[in-house]
């Protein structure tokens, strides 16, 4: 019955979808437990606030139909993206966003779309949609505790904890295409969707997994390439932050290069000195770091995270943690700087006027 429901879902979605473009853990985020079990370690994040002291164009299409299509087909339909960024997983990220109401990202490798992520108000994926209640989506898709995938002589079983089934369940769409659904634990509504190939899911490794056979390995990048990857994630986090803020009626934030430098240096310091805290090894906190770069502000706050597979996962992690969510949606802030260094993420918020 579940396979029938999924098949019906895909057929319904293909018939019409409208969207408007306008852990912290300081060692590896995964380990082998026994001969055939891979366990993802806990991703951690932390937030802190310091005291005050100083023409919507509709496009018709289907999110599933894009998987496997080429870059020329994408640009012919949607035009040139706002950004093209290298990623940790070998594909190029193409971002379409108005920075306010929607955010859609395509992952392209070897001229083939391998993944699509989408969030925002003007996104409809009939018969499910962004903003739909958890139980309503679950009735249509069902969220199992185990999702399997097989290829040749290899087999993989993704093991989802109860909390994961509640906030980011995994659904098998076809033999080799999967969908992650990101739910907001505070509103109990669907907040984002990621569709990706099985190979990318194995590269991301977002869930505990039992497997027999081989695992794909991430590409190895030099320092310049890694810096490009991190810079791309910074800007994507910035755009997603504003889309989330707009969804909840908050003012949009402006990008600040000096604040970004403060955030980046803190992420880099945590990674290189093997710690995870709002305070550096020298005892300096956000207040001192902002002062070093002569950033003048009325109030400021900070979110940090580590060991998330990418910017989307970190953003939904922050939104599902009360303190981080409060910082992301705080009315007072006017500017944002995001700093990413490898798997360490820092958001610095400031109020300037």
Characteristic terms for this protein:
single chain; 353 residues; alpha+beta; Pathogenesis-related Protein p14a; 2 domains; seven-stranded antiparallel β-sheet; 10 helices; 21 strands; globular; CAP_dom; CAP_assoc; CAP_sf; Serine protease
Radius of gyration: 20 Å
Mean pLDDT score: 84
The fold-level CATH name of the largest domain is Pathogenesis-related Protein p14a
Distance between the termini: 57 Å
Q: Can you tell me the overall shape?
A: globular
What's the β-strand tally?
Answer: 21
- Order of adjacent strands in the largest pleated sheet: 6-7-8-9-16-15-14
Low-confidence stretches: 6-42, 50-61
The portion of residues assigned to helices is 25-40%
Count up the helices.
Answer: 10
Structural class call reads alpha+beta
Molecular structure report:
This protein has 353 residues and is of the alpha+beta class. It has 2 domains: 60-212, Pathogenesis-related Protein p14a; 223-352, CAP (Pathogenesis-related Protein p14a, 3-Layer(aba) Sandwich). It has 10 helices and 21 strands. The protein has a 7-stranded antiparallel β-sheet, sandwiched between helices. A hairpin with a 4-residue loop joins strand 7 and strand 8 (102-109). It is globular and about 55 Å long. The termini are far apart. Mean pLDDT is 84; it is low at 6-42 and 50-61. This is Serine protease. Residues 239-349 form the SCP domain. Residues 67-207 form the CAP-associated domain. InterPro entries: CAP_assoc, CAP_dom, CAP_sf.
